[in-house]
Write a structure and sequence with these properties.
This protein is α/β, with parallel strands linked by helices and 429 residues long. Helix content is 58%, strand content 14%. The protein has twelve helices and eleven strands. Strands 8-7-6-11-10-9 form a six-stranded antiparallel beta sheet, sandwiched between helices. Strand 10 and strand 11 form a beta hairpin. Helix 5 packs parallel to helix 9. The longest helix has 91 residues. The N and C termini lie far apart (110 Å).
Length: 429
């Protein structure tokens, strides 16, 4: 891109002075415009935004002091360097007055042309350096602001939407597109300011276009600035965009995505804007990676909760099975004693039935008392069996009140004979 020549505005009411400065400055590589009075100087300064104004003090309509004061009051012209070139300001008080109004330097007529050119170059370089520092400070402030905005969003869809809105504002863009890729380099989340979310098939097709700016960054991993004409903007130029820049979103040498901005004005974006876009791209990559890690952590936490619940159920089931096994083992140990406990009432029952059968066979009445004894022994067996079934049945998990004395009595009754054989007596207080 060809560098623009510095523009100097010469303001003097003497035509010969203007012609001489024209010749000298053009020979030194400057472009020159001129004005013959104060109001014309103000109009041309606002319209042309020159890099320097060489200003005479005594001029028609407005003098140099008045012109300087108005230049400094207008934000559009406040930063243009002004050098007074005059024969009128001879007193130190005049020089001080001009400097207080905002003039940058004084040159008295007659002057040496080499000195004038040297001072002009010095003032322009100083102002350019100051402008670059101010732009850089503005860029740093923007980076801090953008970084803070990016890191407030942890959900990836919300983050990408916010990123596009912020980039739109920071670059005064008329079009923004953002592509995010998975670990295999395939597009997973893509958006632009025209259709919103872009499908994966459309995104792949866009990346494969030979003249796609996003595709170029995707293939090379390098930032790019393209300006029409001869910028090879391709399919975006067909939509009327003449200035495009695109940057990769890198994190630890991995391409997470591509960010592109476009404007219809030719030359709207410059190398300084590309530098800022690269810095914002680094911030965006970090924010995207944080969002990805947050999503992965959230998913892991949910899976971990499900795994813990599943394992808890397994442990609870194993515990219930262990309890049941212990019950069955205890039941086996009690089987011998319980068998004896059941056999005891069977004998009187058998005897009573034999006697009853014999009485019936002899046509004699059956003794009711003996039958009542048999009934009592049957009820005794029934109670033993019921308690045995209750003991062996799996727990329902329900909590119910239990009488400990009654429970002890039942256990004592079940083990009574076994305890008697072991000469053990049980007392209840």
């Amino acid at each position: 891109m060809q560098t623009r020549k510095p523009l100097v505005l010469v303001a003097d009411d003497e035509q010969n002075a203007i012609l001489l400065l024209h010749r000298v400055l053009e020979r030194e590589g400057f472009e020159v415009e001129s004005a013959r009075d104060g109001l014309a100087t103000l109009e041309k300064a606002r319209a042309l935004k020159p890099d320097l104004i060489l200003l005479d003090v005594q001029m028609p309509r407005l003098n140099g002091f008045e012109v300087t004061a108005r230049l400094r009051e207008d934000p559009e012209t406040a930063r243009i360097p002004v050098i007074f070139v005059t024969a009128a300001a001879r007193e130190p008080s005049d020089v001080a007055h001009g400097l207080q109004l905002g003039a940058d330097d004084y040159i008295r007529k007659p002057y040496d042309y080499h000195e004038l050119v040297a001072r002009a170059i010095s003032k322009m370089r100083a102002r350019q350096l100051e402008d670059r520092l101010q732009r850089r400070n503005a860029e740093l402030e923007a980076l801090v602001r953008v970084g803070a905005e990016f890191n407030q969003r942890l959900a990836l869809p919300e983050l990408t939407e916010r990123m596009i809105n912020i980039i739109m504002q920071e670059f005064s863009a008329q079009y923004v597109e953002l592509f995010l890729f998975d670990e295999d380099g395939q597009p997973v989340l893509c958006r632009d300011t025209v259709q919103g979310e872009i499908s994966q098939s459309e995104a792949r097709a866009s990346l494969e276009l030979p003249d796609s700016v996003v595709g170029y960054v995707y293939r090379t991993g390098e930032p790019v600035l393209r300006v029409e004409p001869n910028g090879e903007i391709g399919h975006l130029a067909a939509q009327g965009f003449c200035s495009v820049l695109a940057v990769p979103l890198h994190h630890h040498n991995r391409l997470l995505g591509v960010l592109a901005v476009a404007h219809r004005e030719p030359g709207f974006y410059s190398e300084s804007k590309l530098r800022m876009a690269r810095s914002i791209g680094e911030q965006a990559a970090l924010a995207v990676r944080n969002a990805q890690l947050y999503a992965a952590l959230h998913s892991y936490a949910q899976n971990l909760e499900a795994m813990v619940e599943e394992r808890t159920c397994e442990l609870r089931s194993a515990q219930e099975q262990l309890i049941q096994s212990e019950k069955l083992a205890a039941l086996g140990r009690l089987a011998a004693g319980i068998a004896h406990e059941v056999n005891n009432p069977l004998q009187p029952i058998l005897n009573t039935l034999e006697v009853a059968i014999e009485d019936i066979g002899n046509s004699q009445p059956v003794d009711p008392q003996s039958l009542r004894i048999a009934e009592q022994e049957v009820q005794r067996i029934k109670g033993i069996v019921a308690r045995l079934l209750d003991f062996s049945r799996p727990s329902t998990g329900e909590m119910i009140p239990v009488s400990l004395p009654a429970l002890v009595d039942e256990v004592a009754l079940l083990t009574q004979k076994q305890l008697e054989r072991m000469h053990i007596r049980v007392f209840r207080s």
